[in-house]
């Protein structure tokens, strides 16, 4: 890439607060920064997006993006980008790759430990001001030395592996070809499921992963086993089967950051599933989430201006 | 110790279920087993206790135990035994030592992660069937690389250290002389507190530990820091100060398995403390808790009968 000395028009469609805006404004004095949430109308949003050289964020709708013929670089603020699958733009696209991996891994482990150590039940008792004490002890479980299958071998999977090593868990990865995976085919996975205490989906949303966790697999899970999902909700072939397994106690519980429908609608049966933690697609969140996005963008922008290769380039067609 | 061939009278004051009773009865056919919960009156309980050679459990009241002149061995089912402090009996006393260390460590980490990842708040939202989604993300924190002070260097502290290594935490131990501790005096501890993200009490209940965590220390904690206690409730010099710090947001939160008063009375201000997880002295619990106690007792009983030294001998006067 050639070095770019000219001022850039940067359109920002990311829910930044004043502190991140101030940082960007003070760092990028020569460039024109346009924050979507400061524009009064859709007309102005569209015309600003169309003249932008660079776009930071996940713009909607897709057809606006497809008209952005001036765009040279799109920096997404997410890791996943299946919403843009197949979109053709003349710009390089980058994502946040493993940025959310540690928070996502922590949310899943927090959910598992809450179920195992009764934190959800003690929280309800606290709201009632009610002591049960010893009665509750005999239902508590340990994460120590549990057998865990992780679907996927990317960033979240690696961070989960690090955390679970502190609990001496036996961790097995399912992935087509990744080096650390020992389960490569659907048949391998089906054979391993009956022995697993915990199954954690970390897979991105692609054609190959949609419906990968089948009804047959849910039926093979043991009665104490937990199903967790921090990848994409459409990993589960039929969510109604999962819900039924939770309600009837065919499986031990679930920790779901992602679900077939998001937001989960009012009155949806998931809200009433026992032994289930619903973290509302917050897994990647943290107090420093937007600071980190702004910092990464500035770093990648420096590469862009110097004509160097950008970090985290992805292919919208391939899905990774 | 001499080998004992004669049948023993074993009095059992431990809340076993039928499965553990069956195991003990089938293993110890030659001995006389008396289960306290099967006796109809206090008179029978006292007379059975007084004729026992061996006692498994934590008998109350203390003066019954002091009359048990036939007793040769008392196997407690707990780790702590401050209730028996200074009791004089002619028998060897053993406890469960580090048996509860892993479950206790897991309960504290589960509570910390629940606060950091919002699990308590998502649980409340689930009970209301209410989606907030992204709004909740910016308040979430990470356990990754947090600075942790652990008060104590015994079993729970070691297991906490193992778990926290998976989160790349910086862990510092406070103990008078233990090798892994770097904080030895109250002054060392006071100096370290302002930098800590998490402080975890794991100390047993002795004269030295009562009130060790002072009001001055609470006042030195930073505004995001968590106070956790899995040792004994009387570690905190003045629980009202801790409660005030939680209500006013002077500290970030608390995970309390133990408290000054247990059970926590109805209407007690602890029930209404924000960012607080109360696990009701269940930290040691697990589905296999009583199986493990029965198995350890049988193992130690074999040593007793063979005249070998018992495992986990403690000194009621010294408190360890």
UniProtKB/TrEMBL annotation, chains A, B:
Residues 110-283 form the D-isomer specific 2-hydroxyacid dehydrogenase NAD-binding domain. One of its GO terms (molecular function) is NAD binding. SUPFAM superfamilies: Formate/glycerate dehydrogenase catalytic domain-like (SSF52283), NAD(P)-binding Rossmann-fold domains (SSF51735). It comes from the Bacteria. Keywords: NAD, Oxidoreductase. The keyword NAD applies. InterPro entries: D-isomer_DH_NAD-bd (IPR006140), NAD(P)-bd_dom_sf (IPR036291). PANTHER family: 2-HACID_DH_C DOMAIN-CONTAINING PROTEIN, D-ISOMER SPECIFIC 2-HYDROXYACID DEHYDROGENASE NAD-BINDING DOMAIN-CONTAINING PROTEIN. This is D-2-hydroxyacid dehydrogenase.
């Amino acid at each position: 890439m050639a070095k770019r000395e000219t001022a850039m028009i940067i359109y920002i469609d990311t829910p930044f607060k004043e502190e991140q805006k101030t940082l960007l404004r003070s760092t990028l004095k020569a460039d024109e920064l346009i924050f979507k949430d400061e524009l009064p109308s859709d007309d102005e949003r569209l015309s600003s997006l169309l003249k932008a050289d660079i776009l930071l964020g996940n713009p909607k709708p897709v057809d606006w993006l497809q008209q952005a013929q001036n765009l040279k670089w799109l920096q997404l603020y997410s890791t996943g980008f299946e919403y843009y699958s197949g979109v053709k733009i003349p710009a390089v696209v980058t994502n946040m790759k493993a940025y959310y991996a540690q928070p996502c891994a922590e949310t899943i482990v927090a959910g598992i430990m809450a179920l195992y150590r009764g934190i959800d039940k003690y929280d309800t008792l606290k709201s009632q001001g009610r002591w049960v004490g010893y009665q509750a002890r005999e239902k508590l479980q340990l994460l120590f030395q549990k057998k865990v299958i992780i679907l996927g071998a990317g960033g979240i999977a690696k961070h989960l592996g690090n955390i679970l090593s502190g609990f001496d868990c036996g961790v097995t990865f399912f992935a087509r070809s990744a080096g650390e995976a020992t389960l490569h085919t659907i048949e391998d996975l089906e054979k391993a499921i009956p022995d697993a205490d915990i199954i954690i989906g970390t897979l991105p949303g692609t054609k190959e992963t949609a419906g990968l966790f089948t009804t047959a697999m849910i039926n093979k899970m043991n009665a104490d086993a937990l199903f967790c999902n921090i990848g994409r909700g459409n990993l589960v072939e039929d969510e109604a089967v999962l819900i039924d397994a939770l309600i009837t106690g065919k499986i031990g519980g679930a920790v779901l950051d992602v679900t077939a429908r998001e937001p989960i609608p009012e009155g949806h049966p998931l809200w009433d599933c026992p032994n289930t933690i619903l973290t509302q697609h917050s897994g990647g969140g943290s107090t420093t989430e937007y600071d980190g996005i702004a910092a990464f963008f500035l770093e990648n922008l420096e590469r862009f201006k110097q004509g160097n290769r950008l970090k985290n380039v992805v292919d919208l067609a391939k899905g990774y």
